[in-house]
Q: What sequence folds into this?
């Protein structure tokens, strides 16, 4: 995957661990617990996973 598309897909993108909604925010806010899911309000977020080429579904 080239740089611009990888940045758009994965840079500062986090996923809610409760409802799986995606949102774009700073990693510092996520670590501090200040970022919340806009869909359900849950503050447990994880970084979006990057699938390796040839691996995954």
A:
């Amino acid at each position: 995957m080239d740089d611009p598309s990888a940045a758009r897909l994965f840079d500062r993108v986090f996923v809610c661990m409760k409802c799986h909604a995606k949102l774009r925010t700073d990693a510092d806010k996520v670590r501090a617990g200040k970022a919340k899911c806009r869909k359900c309000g849950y503050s447990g977020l994880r970084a979006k996973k990057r699938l390796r080429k040839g691996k995954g579904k």
Notes: Strands lie at 13-16, 22-24, 45-47. The CA atoms of residues 14 and 54 lie 23 Å apart.
